[in-house]
Specification:
This protein is of the alpha+beta class. It has a single domain, classed as Jelly Rolls (Sandwich), CATH 2.60.120.590. The strands form 3 sheets. A 7-stranded antiparallel β-sheet has the order 1-2-11-8-13-6-3, covered by helices on one side. A hairpin with a 2-residue loop joins β4 and β5. The chain is globular, with a radius of gyration of 16 Å.
Length: 214
């Protein structure tokens, strides 16, 4: 049978706007290995519900790995090289995360992307991430690579202004999105997760965002 996917690991590319592309199925072949690596990180740095500066408990549970990780508390949002729950450095970034992110970014036209931080988000049914921008990273010229695992979600994104019209994009198991260039500061969020069961994650969606924070 012909090679349906050409030189891609699996899947196809879906440009969504200048600077952003969905690489459908790009992480599929590595999904179980990625989830095993997530479990190893979580054993060192358990998922927790962070609190926003306004005092709201986030419904998405988070942890991370790398040289530093994004955190939120009553004092604000920032990257910290220490896990505030343990007082220890974040777990090292698995080589698999770095390799996947570099390959995906390269495919999207951002050669040489080397992430130093990975935020890991865990969604249960009903959990959502409200509209926000990612702008706590030092160099906003560097893209963010996102990897979706487990249950599907409806992702939404707008533009630079908070009230720009929103578009919805379904993101499923194994999909990777690269956000760079003019899309890097676009507002985005995740609609409440629908109940379901996935063979690899059960009743969960896991999202990895690979970033260069410093
Ligand atoms: C668009 N996570 O962790 S990933 C986040 O599915 C975050 O857990 C979502 O937003 C999730 O900050 C969405 C897709 C994503 C990530 C970063 C972006 C989209 C982006 C940065 C700029 C524009
Ligand atoms: Fe974000």
């Amino acid at each position: 049978m012909a090679d349906l996917f050409g030189d891609q690991p699996q899947g196809w590319d879906e440009p969504i706007c200048p600077g952003a592309v969905v690489l459908r199925g790009f992480a599929l072949a590595r999904a179980q290995a990625l989830l095993d690596a997530v479990a190893a990180v979580v054993a060192q740095a358990p998922f927790r519900h962070m609190v926003t500066p306004g005092g709201q408990r986030m419904s998405v549970a988070m942890t991370g790995c790398g040289d530093c990780c994004w955190i939120s508390d009553r004092r604000g949002y920032r990257y910290d090289d220490v896990d505030p729950d343990s007082g220890r450095p974040w777990p090292a970034m698995p080589a698999l995360f770095r390799a996947l992110a570099e390959e995906a970014a390269g495919r999207a036209g951002f050669a040489g992307f080397v992430p130093d931080a990975c935020l890991i988000n865990r969604y249960e049914p009903g959990t959502r991430l409200s509209l926000h921008q990612d702008r706590d990273e030092r160099d906003l010229g560097v893209p963010i690579v996102s990897v979706s695992l487990g249950l599907p979600a409806q992702f939404q994104f707008g533009g630079l202004a908070r009230n720009d019209p929103l578009r919805r994009i379904p993101l499923g198991h194994g999909d990777v999105v690269v956000w760079g260039g003019p899309a890097r500061l676009f507002h985005h969020g995740v609609l409440p997760l629908k109940a379901g069961r996935h063979a690899l994650t059960g009743e969960l969606r896991i999202n990895l965002t690979l970033r260069k924070a410093r």
